[in-house]
Amino acid sequence: MMNEVLRRVVKRLHFPIEVMLMCSRWYAAYPLSLRHIEEMMAERGVDVDHATIHRR
Questions:
Q1: Total domains, the chain
Q2: How far apart are CA 49 and CA 52, in angstroms?
Q3: Which of 54, 30, 53 lies closest to 42 in space, CA to CA?
Q4: Structural domain boundaries enclosing 43
Q5: What is the C-alpha separation between 42 and 36, in angstroms, rounded?
Q6: Is 0.70 surpassed by the pTM of this model?
Q7: Is the separation of the CB atoms in 27 and 37 below 8 Å?
Q8: For the chain (length 56 residues), average pLDDT per consecutive 10?
Q9: DSSP string over 1-56
C-alpha cells in the first residue's frame, strides 16, 4: 500500500525525488531561506524556483 501512495506522489513531481529530498533536508537542517536553496541548486545545475521548493 505504501508503495502505491509513493508512486502517486512521485508521479506528480516535476523534479527527481532526490532533488526534492535534498532541498527539504537543507531547509530543515540549516538556517537557509528558500531563495538560498534555489541558488545552491542552481550552482549544481538544477533550475528550480524557490516557490516550487515551498510547495514540496
A1: 1
A2: 5
A3: 53
A4: 2-54
A5: 10
A6: no
A7: yes
A8: 68 76 90 92 90 70
A9: -HHHHHHHHHHH-SS-HHHHHHHHHHHHHS---HHHHHHHHHHTT----HHHHHT-
